[in-house]
Specification:
Layout lengths: L6 H31 L9 H8 L3 H8 L2 H20 L6 H25 L7 H18 L9 H14 L2 H10 L4 H18 L1
Amino acid sequence: MKVKPPAKISRTYKQGARAQAAKATGQRVIDAFLSRLMQQWFDEITLDAVAEDAGVTVQTVIRKFGNKNGLLAQAVKTFANQVNARRSSPKGDIKTIIDNLFHDYEESGDAVIRLLALEERHQELKDTLNFGRNLHREWVANAFEDSFPSSDEGERRRMLDCLVITADVYTWKLLRRDMRRSIPASKAVVENMIRNILIEE
């Protein structure tokens, strides 16, 4: 004889399954949006296209995220996790730090540059880009933590500013896109600048 599970357990299981399915759907939408963001300008991306890519209806996207700005606000968390994973390096290991930084920029640098270009035209992008700036600065501070002077806060800030600028996406763009330098040549330039900053200290 088949024994039915208690109704309460059955309801809890169904609610948990629905919650997992809803979470998976939301992540699928975010992944579809980020995929488009890597290829297109933000203001060219439509919710219809994202919904189609994710295999859901536009109404589902709107219900979960409200609008494209709401989707961006949620997607930036996934994007930040991806950036941190690509950049993860042993502290002070300059070559690995630069290798992983360039790996990240080769994946996402063009998309970030496009967002920065739209910042003054779309005020809603400011929070996202400021989040990215803070994330970048924190990453640099952590990567070179052992190299900072411990007693002079002013010198520490100056050194951090220099390293943040050297490792910035605009530096990558100048080398890789504007000057058309190869990846090895671009890495060598950035490594030279970083080592000079560290030597000066």
